[in-house]
Amino acid sequence: MRVLILDFDGVIVESNNIKTGAFRELFSRFPDHAKPMMAYHHEHVSVSRFDKFDYLLRRLGKVDDARLRTDLAERFARLVRERMLEVPFVVGAETFLEKMAAKLPLYLASATPADELGEILAHLDLGHWFRGVYGCPPWTKPNAILDVLRREQVESNETLLVGDSAGDQRAATETGVGFLARDSGLPFDEPVPEQFPDMNQLGEHLASRLR
Question: Considering only CA atoms, which of 148, 150, 151 is closest in space to residue 134?
Answer without folding.
Answer: 148
